[in-house]
Specification:
Blueprint lengths: L1 E6 L9 E2 L2 E2 H17 L5 E4 L8 H30 L17 H16 L4 E8 L16 E5 L6 H18 L12 E4 L14 E9 L3 H4 L1 H22 L7 H5 L18 H13 L21 H13 L11 H9 L1
Parallel strand pairs: 1-4, 1-5, 5-8, 6-7
Antiparallel strand pairs: 2-3, 6-8
Helix pairs in contact: 1-6, 2-3, 4-6
The structure holds zinc ion (ZN).
């Protein structure tokens, strides 16, 4: 299978930014993790559109040699699509969620990626993004969190295959990560008629998803000590979703957990001053054991953050009650560590 990974935005500009963290760097980091996972599996041939400095040579050359063709193709597609709408063969639909318009040159590059993918028999294109929303105070985190998968609207030829793929990806991601609670995104998989990346104007023959992996201000991304792990885990879950889509039957222990964070050995007591990685793994284990988030909360209320707060303390209490641990009262003491390691 030939997979094209497109880390969202240009190498040097565009995308969300928050507290010096840039979406375009996060999308590249996640994309490179995904690339590595796929390259280790002989079933996949992997292409990645760019790194943090430049577009990949393949695409630099393609754009250089085909720029005028891409522009012409883009306008032909639009004309053809409008003609079908006028003839009543297609009902034009509109995005449920407002997206920023790409500048013209960026839009041409996105059409170019679709054209290249069509010509090079790519089977699946994965566009990687992180979300943001308009916030009254740009220095403060917003109110929304979670991931969303955009798929081509049903009037497009690549819609059906993409939706099946999105279901597989959704199941893997939703196990450990919140689904977006932004109105319009809360179904987790969203029909999208206008995003070029998933094939607007019928420009993509390949199954194309655009995954918004979360909101840039979410604490697991802002927390430097767990960010890389959080991105790695998202890449891993995407990889597992692809494997599920192709009905891979080689399920091993790691795949059955569905995360890179467990199994984990907790050697120290996990208190407020302990290692964020241990806490991140603890939160993951508590999700796996179905005590996190606490019963009246959602994953959006209680994300995996690498920091112990009220959600984690409540979940530890439930965990201790479940395994008959006494006298540690929501703290991770020796008995709790022992129970976690045994599990
Ligand atoms: Zn983006």
């Amino acid at each position: 299978m030939r997979i094209l990974i497109v880390p969202g935005h240009e190498p040097n500009f565009g995308g969300a930014e928050f507290n010096n963290l840039k979406e375009r760097d996060m999308t590249m980091e996640l994309g490179q993790f995904l690339q590595k996972l796929l390259e280790n599996n002989p079933h996949y041939q992997v292409f990645i559109a760019r790194d943090n400095k430049a577009w990949s040579t393949e695409f630099v050359n393609y754009y250089q040699n085909n720029w005028a063709d891409i522009i012409e193709w883009r306008s032909l597609l639009k004309e053809e699509f409008s003609r079908l709408v006028v003839m009543g063969q297609i009902v034009k639909t509109y995005s449920a969620v407002v997206h920023n318009d790409a500048p013209n040159e960026v839009a041409t590059r996105l059409y170019g990626l679709n054209k290249w993918a069509n010509e090079n028999d790519i089977d699946i294109t994965i566009n990687i993004h992180f979300n943001d929303n308009i916030r009254p105070n740009t220095r403060r985190p917003g109110e929304y969190s979670g991931f969303a998968i955009y798929v081509p609207a049903s009037q497009y030829g690549n819609s059906e295959a993409t939706k099946t793929l999105a279901d597989s990806l959704f199941k893997r991601l939703a196990k450990y990560n919140p689904v977006s609670n932004l109105p319009g995104e809360s179904t987790g998989i969203i029909d999208e008629p206008e995003l070029i990346a998933v094939g607007a104007n019928n420009s993509a023959d390949t199954a194309s998803v655009l995954i918004e992996y979360g909101y840039i201000y979410e604490s697991q991304f802002q927390n430097k000590e767990v960010r890389t792990l959080a991105l790695k885990d998202l890449a891993f879950q995407t990889y597992l979703g692809l494997e599920d889509f192709f009905n891979s039957d080689n399920v091993d222990v790691v795949k059955s957990y569905g995360t890179l964070l467990i199994p984990h050995q907790w050697s120290n007591l996990v208190g407020n001053r302990s290692v964020p990685l241990d806490i991140f793994a603890l939160q993951t284990a508590l999700i796996f054991d179905e005590v996190y988030p606490p019963s009246n909360k959602t994953k959006n209320d209680c994300a995996r953050t690498g920091v112990i707060g009220p959600c984690t303390r409540t979940a530890i209490n439930t965990f201790q009650a479940k395994y008959g641990i006494r006298g540690e009262d929501g703290r991770v003491g020796p008995q709790t560590v022992k129970a976690l390691n045994q599990l």
